[in-house]
TrEMBL record:
This is Pyocin large subunit. InterPro entries: PAAR_motif. Residues 92-120 are annotated as: Disordered. Residues 95-120 have a biased composition (Polar residues).
Amino acid sequence: MAKGYYLVVEDETTCGGIIIEGDTTHTLFGRAVAREEDRVTCGKHPGTYYIIGHIPGDKIHGRNFAGTLHSKSSCPCEAEFIPSMVDDTYDLTPSDYSKPSTQTDESADNNNQANSPKNQIICTHTDGALVVAEYIVNEIKRM
């Protein structure tokens, strides 16, 4: 299973550029989370470029999260990103999202996905969000 890292504003590229745009309404440790199509500079070529590629299934306000396993710069270098937030990761198996679904029965598709270990993104947030979410769910169930 491969480990990927979420990207944020000011993360660097392998060619010396930096991510200069992100969603300020969603932050990791105070820094705006980068998404596909957010702007990035290049360390070797003038101008502004874009993040291409995204983490499958992860979105913020309809835009896909950028991550080290799936994203690169659209600059001529096609640079990869150097994450600064190494405590916030996601895991993917190599076969994730490689096959398009051919089923037409939505309920059968949902059952297969729920029972299949592949196609799972595993959240490893260290900020306590899961504890808070569990508490909220338990409080709702008590009502």
